Amino acid sequence: MPVTDLFESKPHHDQPYGDDANLQLSRSGGLRHLLTLRGLSRQMLSDLLDLSAEFLSPLGDAAVRTDTLAGKTVANLFFEPSTRTRASFDLAAKRLGADVLNLDVNTSSRKKGESILDMIYTLQAMQVDVFVVRDASAGVPAYIARHVKDHVSILNAGESDVSHPTQGILDLLTIRQHKKSFENLTVVIVGDIAHSRVARSAAQGLSIMGVGELRLVSPKSLAPNSDDFPRARIMHRLDEGIRGADVVMALRIQRERIGNLDGIPGIDEYFANYGVSHERMKMAAPDAIVMHPGPMNRGIEIESSLADSPCSVITQQVTNGLAVRMAILSTVCHNLDTR
Ligand code: CP
Fold this sequence. Notes:
- The chain has helices spanning 42-54, 84-95, 116-124, 140-145, 165-178, 197-208, 238-241, 267-274, 278-281, 304-307, 314-337; strands at 73-78, 99-102, 130-135, 153-159, 186-190, 213-217, 233-235, 247-250, 289-291.
- It is α/β, with parallel strands linked by helices.
- The protein has two domains: 42-160 and 319-337, Rossmann fold (3-Layer(aba) Sandwich); 165-317, Aspartate/ornithine carbamoyltransferase (Rossmann fold).
- Strand 5, helix 6 and strand 6 (213-217) form a beta-alpha-beta unit.
- Helix 1 (42-54) crosses helix 11 (314-337) and helix 2 (84-95) crosses helix 11.
- Residues 1-16 have low confidence and may be disordered.
- Phosphoric acid mono(formamide)ester binds at residues 82-86, 158, 167, 293-295.
């Protein structure tokens, strides 16, 4: 049988990792792929946060550079739009000394019907060592990880509404920089939780780190299946959910994942009921921070001036994202070399 990828014709499945969360670990228990935060230990996440911090330097200073990835090749394959994740993986790989291939998928042979696996095998034959993959279908990163050679690593850069693990780690790093411990924190995530891979990875990461309380606030039409968030309080009134919160994370409505927008509040109604504003932040803890993964819709899920105010850590999340991606690339390449 020819190497044929029938992936796109397989049914969507909500739990692409099932019992395979360990697929991402090497035989010695190190991180080989990063597909999901589910199943990672607190120690492993803490180590990644510590390593990420080593790649930070003050803005305006020279960026941290090493030759850790000299001789390695990293391919960025983004089948969905991205600014932050794509740019930061690109810069991260370059600052670690790797060769980097940013494939323009719109002009790739996938447009001529080539399967994603044939595309991967083609690039693997050119000695690509790490594939950074963003795709709108659930299960794609794990599917590729099951098929690549032993010396190759797959990093999930955003998978449908399922998982965005590097975003989850950068969110943890940002929270850790501002708050002493996770145990006593109340975190509220407000927005389109139903369609958010950011919320899923944040919830997984926060749960692993032992967060005190996680509240998920959304209109009923954008509420998640509670099975996806076993430890969270699912709420529908932001005025209640934000009370006393230490961390407030706003999410945009993922219109591209919603087939029928009936029942989704209009912009004014949404901002009135779910917009994170200066006024609402008065109900949060006095030293609460405001987060947003981007891209932001100012005036819809967040008041524009709040996004630029001192309690906002949104640009710090972006800075941390680059450091986290450097840490992940260093870790998986080290584990590939010592497997
Ligand atoms: N937060 C995030 O994933 O942003 P991009 O879609 O710009 O990569």
